[in-house]
Amino acid sequence: MKELALGCVAILLLSGAAFAQSTIDATGEADGKTVLWFAGTHVTALIESGFSVDGSLDIDGQTVEFTATGTATGEGEGDSSALTLDVWLLFDATGETAEGVPIVLRGGMAGSSDDADLASSAFGSASGPFFFLIRLGPRTYSALGTAEGSAAGAFVVPDDPLTMQMEGVGSYSLLGELLPRDSVPDAAHDVEPDLPWDPASWPAELYDNLIGLLIGTCDEAADGAEDV
């Protein structure tokens, strides 16, 4: 009986290890510009920035630290009187782990803010779901969870005199889970079921760009790189 009990405990421990959740935990900084169009209190925004991200991937109990840099582009829409702003962003970054393994992160996030005081050049804080495809050496993962961030800036002379323009900085955090994939997607139906959004909730052209970014993700990453 004692041997049977010990055997059951061992099976439970092994089962727990086999199904241990893999996670992503990262923070970053962004700097760039936002072009604003006002129609009464309604505001639309075009966002372009560079960003950096530092974090760790916990994969089956092994911690993999990484750094990456890239670009973030997207759109926003809100009400300057109600201080609300919805944003949709695309991210494209490359970097490496602490051990020198190439890493590529591509995907997007959607966030909402209820303290976006554009009159004082503050986008406020926002939170919402994110989804990335991560290529780590020869391995591919889906990463999904919650992004939180804040941004502020200052008005500058706009590139387009019919708009208003801000330049500023922001910070953000990403916390979520990793799911291994057999391969990178090569068609929309390979990735759309995994996304945490209703496609109709995104601006149509930006959503199409998101799908295009995810399809074939990381083709330029070094295949055959050393596994972690």
Terminus-to-terminus distance: 41 Å
Strand order of the largest sheet: 1-2-3-4-5-6-7-8
For the biggest sheet, the summary is:
8 strands, antiparallel, barrel
- Please state roughly what percent of the residues sit in beta strands, choosing from under 5%, 5-15%, 15-25%, 25-35%, 35-45% or over 45%: over 45%
Low-pLDDT stretches are: 1-19, 218-228
Helix content: 10-25%
The coarse overall form would be globular
Q: Supply the helix-strand structural class.
A: mainly beta
User: How many helix segments?
Assistant: 2
Walk me through this protein's architecture.
It is built from two helices and eight strands. It is mainly β and 228 residues long. The protein has one domain. The chain has an eight-stranded antiparallel beta barrel.
Short description:
By secondary structure, the protein is mainly beta. Helices cover 12% and strands 57% of the residues.
Secondary-structure map:
Layout: H1 2-18, E1 22-39, E2 42-59, E3 62-79, E4 84-97, E5 102-113, E6 122-136, E7 139-156, E8 164-181, H2 204-214
Antiparallel strand pairs: 1-2, 1-8, 2-3, 3-4, 4-5, 5-6, 6-7, 7-8
